[in-house]
Specification:
Blueprint (H helix, E strand, L loop, with lengths): L2 H4 L72 E4 L3 H12 L8 E4 L12 E3 L3 E3 L11 H7 L13 H11 L8 E3 L3 E2 L9 H12 L10 H4 L8 H10 L7 H10 L20 H15 L3 E3 L2 E11 L2 E11 L2 E6 L5 E5 L8 E4 L20 H9 L7 H4 L2 H4 L1 E8 L3 H9 L15 E3 L6 E4 L14 E7 L18 H12 L5 H6 L1 E8 L25 E4 L13 H16 L15 H11 L8 H8 L15 H16 L4 H21 L1
Parallel strand pairs: 1-2, 1-11, 2-7, 5-14, 11-18
Antiparallel strand pairs: 3-4, 5-6, 8-9, 9-10, 12-17, 13-16, 13-17, 14-15, 15-16
Helix pairs in contact: 2-9, 2-16, 3-16, 18-19, 18-20, 19-20
């Protein structure tokens, strides 16, 4: 059966088809049969409740969406999952929880000998710890938390989930930063506002209003002015999410919608939540324990590089997986009822490592990743059919997708002393330290560093701190070390950090107490490269009957990439589609439409000052039921009427007839609301 026959949702949840409305007799017409759309898209049109529209709307998630439809088991069905990162593990989780499959019928294949993919965390205090990257987290990652509310917590007693554990940590230790931006070798730069002029604000509003379809292959620097790219907003945004100026403007737009609810907490990072430990211990360990307790199998040292496809008409069915196992070619047969889930591309593929005295040596070419690459599977699929997208758009420019990180294992030194002065709490207290990255705005590398809650590893000694450092620009000489970061040893990267912290004269004392491990990643922002419609394949490409693609390089409609939420979402869509589970994977949280978020976002973009028209809203709604949605004004009550009328004059023009009419209407509307409220 075609996946598109099996998958698919009544929903028209967003249609305005006549059969959803009352007929002339006053009775609903019978709903026409429709395929079930697993992947919700709340932007397709106006949502209304008709007889075939399931509740809640596709971007609303709550306990009512926790139902588990009954799915008849398919005898003999097995699942093959290529990649044991968060996407692959999520696919296994949903196959078991919602698909009713047995764990022993599910096999994960991985090139490495350890699960987690890009979610890593390794090392020790003696050789130095290693974290290639980190993830900012949001409360409305609805798919991610749907998964982890059913996974046993790492440290809490049985019955408590990873979500329970996560909330306890963040509810009792809120995140914020007191030194988010720095410059001039140790000075904290004023980051109290986003630093946007009226022209810059208009640029953001224009981008938010643009249709996604109009932004194919447009870059950030194609759209924004050069002065915008020097604002506090852009330093905060690009350093938090790792955007380069030549990356996709479409992805920046999607990020702005996704994080609109957090924009007033962007400056001090109070909108973010972080795990207790590194991402591998916090998420990979408990999830893998969960899967293995259900009997899921893992086959290591297995690089899948191609899939055998049989085409019958428009349908494409996987019959075999071509792979190298321990370096030897093998073909894994895929049965007629089996399903296959494959990761496309890899952000951390080809990482080159260095240390205190060793420079990382990159092995990957700028245009082709080579035959021993995790990109090879997607590349070979793309040669079979255009429905599999264009991987070279993403892997074909290493210079544009590369950056480097450094993990610092620190014992007491002048660096730790400086860190204490920049931290929210004592670094050894177990509570929030820097509250996220601190970015040096005058760094030629755009250098940032962070110290998360300590210990960052469960086995970390009490006198050791783990810091993480990264830079965005790989082709610029440092301010202190006169060479690009990829040409530097760990000792030189440490010297550059000390320079920007104002302690370069103490670098020898710091180096004596610090171990540095470097990670140069050629594809770490490949998912942000400029793209157009069709460059990324759908989760279940058109015509595929038993194949789903997952991860950061597949089409996600309205969601963003470079998140664990995206990995879980794509895996979940694949599972529900291939198994014919009649349940929608929710669209992103509707917080972008919430009037409260729009109002506070407008205030934040206007540098925390009342935005144009805000006083008019206060004049209209200030004594109504809806007064509480309005941000407080700095004005006294007796001046509100005059200021509101001044705003009208600014908007409509002094002396215009429209001004008088609008002022009268505003006053009548306000009085009417007051009368209704009595």
């Amino acid at each position: 059966m075609s996946t598109h026959d099996a998958s698919i949702p009544p929903s028209s949840s967003l249609s305005s088809s006549p059969s959803s409305f009352p007929s002339s007799s006053g009775l609903h017409q019978a709903p026409a049969p429709e395929a079930f759309r697993v992947e919700a898209d709340a932007t397709q049109g106006f949502w209304h409740k008709g007889p075939r529209d399931t509740l809640p709307p596709p971007d609303m998630l709550g306990p009512y969406s926790r139902h588990r439809p009954r799915v008849p088991p398919v005898p003999g069905r097995k699942a093959w999952i290529i990649g044991s990162g968060i996407a692959g593990m999520a696919a296994a989780f949903y196959l078991i929880r919602d698909g009713g499959m047995k764990g022993e019928d599910i096999t994960l294949l991985d090139t490495l000998d350890i699960a987690g993919g890009s979610l890593d965390g390794s090392g020790n205090a003696e050789q130095g710890y290693l974290i290639r990257g980190g993830r900012e987290m949001n409360w409305n990652y609805d798919n991610f938390w749907d998964l982890f509310q059913d996974v046993q917590a790492l440290e809490l007693p049985p019955g408590y989930s990873v979500l329970d554990e996560y909330r306890q940590v963040n509810d009792h230790d809120p995140n914020w930063s007191k030194a988010r931006l720095m410059h001039r070798q140790g000075e904290i730069r004023d980051f109290s506002t986003l630093g946007l002029s009226r022209a810059h604000q208009l640029e953001i509003v224009k981008l938010l209003l643009k249709r996604k379809e109009d932004l194919d292959d447009v870059t950030i620097e194609d759209f924004f002015s050069s002065s915008f790219l020097e604002t506090n907003f852009w330093f905060l945004w690009r350093s938090m999410f790792a955007f380069e100026n030549w990356h996709s403007l479409l992805e920046v737009k999607l990020y702005m919608h996704r994080f609109l609810d957090a924009i007033d907490g962007l400056t001090d990072m109070s909108a973010l939540v972080f795990p207790k430990y590194n991402q591998w211990d916090s998420f990979v360990v408990p999830l893998m324990r969960h899967l293995q307790s259900h009997g899921v199998k893992v086959q290591w040292a297995t690089r899948a590089y191609d899939l055998d496809l049989v085409e019958l008409g428009s349908q494409k069915t996987v019959t075999g997986i071509r792979c190298k196992v321990q370096g030897q070619d093998q073909r894994l047969a895929v049965g007629p009822h089996d399903v296959v889930f494959a990761l496309t591309g890899s952000m951390t593929e080809g990482t080159a490592y260095g240390d205190m005295d060793t420079v990382p040596v990159l092995q990957r070419g700028n245009e082709e990743p080579g035959e021993d690459s995790d990109w090879l599977l997607w590349k070979n699929l793309s040669l079979k059919s255009p429905v599999f997208g264009k991987p070279k758009k993403f892997y074909g420019n290493v210079a544009g997708s590369m950056w480097e990180s450094a993990t610092l294992t620190c014992r007491p030194s002048p660096l730790v002393d400086r860190l204490k002065a920049l931290s929210v709490n004592d670094p050894y207290s177990g509570k929030t330290v820097t509250g996220g990255i601190i970015t040096f705005t005058d760094s030629n590398w755009v250098l940032s560093f962070t110290c998360n809650r300590q210990p960052h590893f469960p086995d970390q000694p009490k006198d050791v701190l783990v810091l993480w450092v990264y830079a965005l620009l790989m082709d610029k000489d440092g301010n202190n070390v006169k060479k690009p970061m990829p040409q530097c040893t760990g000792r030189e990267v440490l010297a550059e950090l000390c320079y920007h912290l104002g302690i370069v004269d103490q670098v020898d004392a710091v180096a004596a107490q610090t171990k540095v491990r470097l990670s140069l990643m050629p594809y770490i922002t490949a998912q942000f490269m400029p793209r157009a419609a069709g460059d990324r394949p759908d989760v279940v490409p058109q015509g595929c009957t038993n194949l789903a693609l997952m991860g950061q390089f597949v089409e996600t409609r309205n969601d963003i990439i470079f998140t664990m939420e995206c990995s879980v979402r794509t895996a979940r869509i694949g599972v529900y589609t291939l198994l014919g589970i009649p349940k929608q994977v929710p669209d992103i949280s509707p917080t972008q439409y919430d009037i409260r978020n729009l109002l506070k976002g407008a205030r934040a973009l206007n540098n925390n000052e009342p935005f144009p028209g805000e006083r008019l809203l206060h004049r209209l709604l200030g004594k109504s039921y809806f007064a509480h949605i309005l941000p407080p004004l700095p004005d006294k009550d007796e001046t509100l009427k005059e200021r509101a009328e001044a705003e009208l004059a600014t908007l409509l023009g002094k002396g215009s007839q429209a001004l008088g009419v609008a002022a009268q209407w505003l006053e009548r509307a306000r009085e009417g609301l007051q009368r209704k409220g009595r």
